[in-house]
Specification:
The N and C termini lie far apart (about 40 Å). Helices cover about 70% and strands about 0% of the residues. It has a single domain, classed as AhpD-like (Up-down Bundle).
Amino acid sequence: MSATNIASTNSATTTGHGPRLAYETFKETVPDIYSAMIALSGKASGDLDKGLLELVKLRASQINGCAFCLQMHLTMARAAKVPAAKLDLIAAWHDAGVYSTREMAALAWTELLTRLAGNSIADSDYEAIRQHFTEKEVAQLTTVIGVINVWNRISTSFAFAPQIPAA
């Protein structure tokens, strides 16, 4: 299938067709992979602030267009008491004026790593993140970003339906 055919079939993801493979079915079909991903997700987080991690996961999921992960991490961010303004303005975080310098550094790093294809990470980019995070924290944050990008790719590939909480 050519890139053109892939792009044209991409627009039909879940509209009227439902998921290609349900999230629960994925978990049951490849339990070892699922367990490993969950374990890595937990280990990677380390001692980083849960609210910060949810912002990072939200931003990567927005960039990747992953509805399942967006819903999941909005729910988790709300549970972590992330202020509504930060959730509402995450797509425009550069200009929002509601994020700490540490959060903005993490979001900038998230965008760099999520949009890595065809780009490289400059020394100045690494120096910028290191102004706000220890070496260990950068390693953890980088792994968290990598893991959410893997989840986004799995979820969008199978068109997992977002798990919307009851009102």
